[in-house]
Design goal:
The protein has a domain of 57 residues. It is 52% helix and 1% strand. The structure holds a DNA duplex. Belongs to the HD-ZIP homeobox family. Class II subfamily.
Length: 303
DNA sequence: ACCTTAAATGAGTTTACCTCA
DNA sequence: ATTGAGGTAAACTCATTTAAG
């Protein structure tokens, strides 16, 4: 039951791009190595109260989200006042590296990073102390299950930025009573999940494309065969009603398929390679669909 | 037994800093 | 004193794997 819920949450929150874009974003030609650039949907994962979750722990009390999450460690780490709001106010940028460089680009870069790392380690130490207090097994890695609330906050944060800078990581860790390393790992795994899901969607899309193209190809081959057969028996050809989808140009006797060849909106390479004035004049009359002047103009004049 | 996911691990990249010619 | 090249360490991300729940 619990599993089902989590699965559902994940499906909702993975933010798959199933819109009708012709190409899935991950198949686009732009920067394949960059982190996902498609917009994540803004599903609300928090409780029905919107922005805060009530009835945590079954106590029936409603508390602000920030103060109620205390699962894996006691709130012992000295709070860096205003840190959370600082991070909240930080504008999300390109990615972790840019954020990092932005954060460290103001004087004493290394020192600052070390200072941050110091904070990080201090916090981790503080957390670890408590966590290790809770651990009963030595040396065995104790896997904890994140609470629903923790996951919800992490999800919310992930929607805003899929990578964290050290400050954000620290603030989140503090907010959730987790070690910064745990937040980091969660984001890593979350990015991996998103990527996997998107890959599955892309794969499905490509399969469908392949199927429809195969079908289209089969259909066209069949029609070409039929037309060839008709051409071999001219008497029959004269009596035949024209095929529904393919039309023969009376000038060059090449086949045109309105369904797949040029349209004013989507001009494709024409079957014609050289065009006479006659071609241009007759094109309008033999074309099985009304030709826009623009389209006629696109047929080059033979010099 | 199987699935989900937290955590570990290793490779690769970026950045800041240091040394030296 | 300045500068560019090369080396190094730290910090990060991603891919893969392991194993707990």
């Amino acid at each position: 039951m619990m599993m089902m819920m989590e699965k559902e949450d994940l499906a909702l929150s993975l933010g798959l791009n199933t819109s009708t874009n012709y190409f899935p974003p991950s198949l686009s030609l732009v920067s394949p190595s960059s982190s996902p650039s498609w917009p994540m949907p803004s599903h609300r994962l928090l409780g029905p109260s919107g922005g805060s979750i009530s009835n945590v722990g079954g106590a029936g009390e409603t508390r602000p989200l920030l103060t109620m999450i205390g699962v894996n460690r006691a709130p012992s780490v000295a709070a860096t006042a205003g840190k959370v709001s600082d991070v909240e106010e930080e504008e999300e940028e390109g990615g972790a590296s840019s954020l990092n460089s932005a954060a460290s680009s103001v004087g004493g870069k290394r020192a600052e990073r070390h200072a941050l790392a110091g904070d990080d380690h201090d916090a981790e130490r503080a957390c670890f102390r408590v966590v290790s207090d809770e651990e009963d097994g030595e040396g065995s890695r104790k896997k904890l299950r994140l609470s629903k609330d923790q996951s919800a906050v992490l999800e919310e944060s992930f929607k805003k930025h899929s990578t964290l800078n050290p400050k954000q990581k620290l603030a989140l860790a503090e907010q959730l009573n987790l070690r910064p390393r745990q937040v980091e790992v969660w984001f890593q795994n979350r990015r991996a999940r998103t990527k996997l899901k998107q890959t599955e969607v892309d794969c499905e899309f490509l399969k469908k494309c392949c199927e429809s193209l195969t079908e289209e190809n089969r259909r066209l081959q069949k029609e070409v065969q039929e037309l060839r057969a008709l051409k071999l028996s001219p008497q029959l050809y004269m009596q035949m009603t024209p095929p529904t989808t393919l039309t023969m140009c009376p000038s060059c006797e090449r086949v045109s398929n309105p369904a797949t060849t040029s349209s004013p909106a989507n001009p494709q390479p024409s079957v014609h390679r050289q065009y006479s004035n006659h071609d241009r004049q007759t094109a309008a009359s033999w074309a099985p669909f009304p030709l826009e002047p623009l389209f006629l103009d696109s047929i080059p004049q033979r010099s």
